[in-house]
Fold this sequence. Notes:
This protein is α/β, with parallel strands linked by helices. It contains 7 helices and 5 strands, in the order αβαβαβαβαβαα. It has a 5-stranded parallel sheet, sandwiched between helices.
Amino acid sequence: xxxxxxxxxxxxxxxxxxxxxxxxxxxxxxxxxxxxxxxxxxxxxxxxxxxxxxxxxxxxxxxxxxxxxxxxxxxxxxxxxxxxxxxxxxxxxxxxxxxxxxxxxxxxxxxxxxxxxxxxxxxxxxxxxxxxxxxxxxxxxxxxxxxxxxxxxxxxxxxxxxxxxxxxxxxxxxxxxxxxxxxxxxxxxxxxxxxxxxxxxxxxx
Length: 205
């Protein structure tokens, strides 16, 4: 059982050391820590641009609302992009360095719309950093590799120290919510891996 837990953890929890890149991309969500991490990377000189990604939930049709630090981030946010942009600005990223993507409602769309926006703006994407939740890393990488087949992609997760949200490679299997989220991600990686993704992986070999 220990080997199985390790294998699942190694697959789901992808993490790279940050490197100089073209764009830092926040994958949509409701926790400010993701955009705060992106701002930290920006201020440390890892990229010229930060793409604030995310629209509204495909299930509810609205932004889910801020999940932490509501006293700091209290704007009337219509989209995840609006929320992340405010977090980025409050953490020292100039508005001129922020690229907006406010149409996507799920992870695959995050990747596809991000690729389209960067192409439209003429911003290079030879190397990008993805900032996301730790347990969301593999699925983010899977979809962004599909949308950016020629791009080197690094994943630099954000820590979310809120209640039972701090799901890590070491603790996910020790409590029910961690197991639920990680096994859910494992299932989604299988269910959502399309033929187009397989073809893109094969091209890179």
